Amino acid sequence: MAFILDAHIHLSDPLYAEHIDLIVNSMESTGIKACAVSMDNKSSQMTLKLAEKSKNILPFVGIHPEKASDDLDTMVSLINKNSQISGIGEIGLDRSYCSDDDQFKRQVTVFKKLLEQAETLRKPVSVHSRKTLDDIFEIIPSYNISGFLLHWFDGSKKQLKQAMDLGCYVSYGPVMVYSQDKQVLASLSNRDRILVETDGPVKFSHCFGRKEAQITFIPSVVFALAKLLEQSYDETVSMLQNNSERYLGLTR
């Protein structure tokens, strides 16, 4: 059965709590699945509970760089006790959350440990790489992770080529509907490495009325991508499904 994947959304965010049952119903009626990513131990527990509501919610657990001070041992234990997790994320690096070198070193420690877990368990990862792509590119070759997603890719054309050469996936969201820069990056990405996302509950100033991103925005992103790649909507859905299945390790 055909499906579209929202490769990165924070369904455990409190902004979704009141409407989560409606969200689940809409996912099931429209054939949309979601990689529900987490920020820390608390949100990871919430994500695992949400995944019990629907098979369309694919739980990703992890420690976001903003939350790098969270307990790493507890997270490793959570990962190893929950074989039903679909992946590890949101993890990564971001200096904007650091006030000194020690805090960045802590981010690196957390990131590498969770990559190690992903490699051992053969799970995909969803990676935050804002202004740290070069640091992450140095780390990637040390791990054998087939599903390595640089979510909300925002690098240069040169960095995009590096990402493609390293076998990474890249995802684009609602910004691609109106941003020429994102459209250029998407057009230069290997077609077998493209995914789509919302990164909800992020709001988008130039479209969707500044509403918190909803999973139901995904078809609009797919339509924009189809137009950009000069493909039909159905061809793009098929391409994205194949990419999503490989990313998630459902096919090799």
TrEMBL record:
SUPFAM superfamilies: Metallo-dependent hydrolases. Keywords: Hydrolase, Metal-binding. InterPro entries: DNase_TatD-rel_CS, Metal_Hydrolase, TatD-like. A divalent metal cation 2 binds at H128, H151. GO terms for molecular function: hydrolase activity, acting on ester bonds; metal ion binding. The keyword Hydrolase applies. A divalent metal cation 1 binds at H8, H10, E90, D199. Gene3D superfamilies: Metal-dependent hydrolases (3.20.20.140). This is Putative TatD related DNase. It comes from Candidatus Nitrosotenuis uzonensis.
